[in-house]
Design brief:
The chain is an all-alpha fold. The chain is built from five helices and no strands. It has helices spanning about 1-20, 25-45, 60-65, 70-100, 110-125. The radius of gyration is 27 Å and the shape is elongated.
């Protein structure tokens, strides 16, 4: 039951962040969704109720109670995919920060270059 609540909280937080405006928030939303997917995959393997999946020299009774290793392999794959998506989104954030057109404008709305040229012209003319 606690895994279901944790998955619900992670999915709710992830969906909320994915629907936000900033790309960093979207990246963190995908991280939360990835964690929720990992919890679902691991819970489907029954790890909490069973023993470790890889045991040497196990009896038939022990084999019947071992956890299924396939969901664990899927969870490992999901971790790698989530990491790749996160790195890609954060690279987009870094590239977008360099190309942000709002960063080149002054608070008054005019470009910095035009404003600096106008102030340089005022300084060379001197007081009138």
């Amino acid at each position: 039951m606690s895994v279901a609540v944790a998955v619900a909280v992670l999915v709710a937080g992830g969906v909320y962040l994915v629907l936000q405006r900033g790309l960093v928030r979207v990246a963190f939303g995908f991280v939360l969704l990835g964690h929720a997917a990992n919890l679902v995959l691991l819970a489907s393997g029954g790890v909490g109720l069973r023993t470790a999946p890889l045991v040497g020299g196990a009896t038939d009774e022990e084999i019947a109670t071992t956890a299924d290793p396939l969901p664990q392999a899927f969870a490992l794959t999901a971790i790698v995919i989530t990491f790749g998506i996160t790195v890609y989104l954060l690279a987009l954030v870094a590239a977008g920060a360099d190309d942000d057109p709002s960063a080149e404008e002054s608070p008054a709305g005019e470009p910095d270059q035009a404003r600096s040229e106008a102030s340089a012209a005022d300084e060379t003319e001197g007081p009138s």
